[in-house]
Amino acid sequence: MKVDIHDSWKPFLQEEFEKEYFKNLVSFVKSEYKNFKCFPSGNQIFNAFNHCHFNDVRVVIIGQDPYHGVGQANGLCFSVNDNIVHPPSLINIFKEVESDLGIPYPKSGNLLRWANQGVLLLNATLTVRAHQAGSHQKKGWEIFTDAVISLISKNKKDVVFLLWGGFAKQKVKLIDNKKHHVLESGHPSPLSANRGYWFDNKHFSKTNFLLEQVDLGLIEW
């Protein structure tokens, strides 16, 4: 697995790439992709970084695991490729955007349009074996993505971190909330949303308000 990541991230992540855990992770991922069907495709593993350059990061959304169905994952958390049926969590995200901002429900579930505006759509684990949720967890990806969150916290300011659900909320310890903004809510999955922990969180309008206060511009959600 070639670490095909945008140059803007390399000064901050080169040290991670040289650590033993990352070398072991690369070996594991290479073996998995050689012997099993895995997602996303190899050239999309670092899509979150390649479409949201370090200097452009304004918002971070943290997911857990890539989608494990055929054609779904594209390297951005909660996002699916064009012409793919929207998964339940993504449906609820779009419903909240619609309710919060009055933006019509979109046809495409591809969130590249968010990433290209400075929204880092970061899964804690960047790969998965087909039809086996969580199959690449605890192999080193979480160490790497925790390092990413920490370096953003350390080297930037006024980033809005959106922590949805219990797993994402655990990452708050990596974020300096004196320099950054943290918005928390329940997860957009039906289990959480239908219990009243997701809808009406207004995270999209709140994020734009916070960005506007520091002249970082609005996200076109």
From TrEMBL:
Annotated compartments: Cytoplasm
Pfam families (alphabetical): UDG
Family matches, as InterPro entries: UDG_fam1, Ura-DNA_Glyclase_AS, Uracil-DNA_glycosylase-like, Uracil-DNA_glycosylase-like_sf
Residues annotated as catalytic: 65
UniProtKB keywords: Cytoplasm, DNA damage, DNA repair, Glycosidase, Hydrolase
NCBIfam families found in the cross-reference section: PRK05254.1-1, PRK05254.1-2, PRK05254.1-4, PRK05254.1-5, ung
Name of protein: Uracil-DNA glycosylase
Gene: ung
